[in-house]
Design a protein that fits this description.
Helix content is about 65%, strand content about 0%. It is mainly alpha-helical. It is elongated, with a radius of gyration of 20 Å.
Length: about 140
Amino acid sequence: MNTVLDPLLLPDQVALSATDRQAASDKLDSAVRQGRLTPPQALDRHDLLDASHTRGELHQVLDGLDDAIPPRGLTTALRVTTAVWLITCVVQFVVWLSLAFFGHFDWPWWLYSDLGLGAVVGILWWTHESYHRKSAVLLNR
């Protein structure tokens, strides 16, 4: 895959960034302050966080903490919708080019569905990403 499609098709395989690690660390610290984790449990999870390399591994680190990781259903919806969107884009573009090749050049009618599905993919991606970007300020409310 390439770096553009990886976060959409394989969101659990995306490498952890410094921002992701900091957000996860803040979530663990917030859970200790709220009494949902004991300090030794948080320390164990911080060690797991240090050893984690992908966002999928964060599921083990943040397991049991409410709203800390995207639900599996959201991740699956993102992957399926992205795959359908990409297939639709390619098929419609090929049909449009084929029609143009045989003299039936028409306005790009395929843009309506491609942009509409692209908006759905964008909303799902933004929602999925929001779980990884929640700050400690939002967690303490």
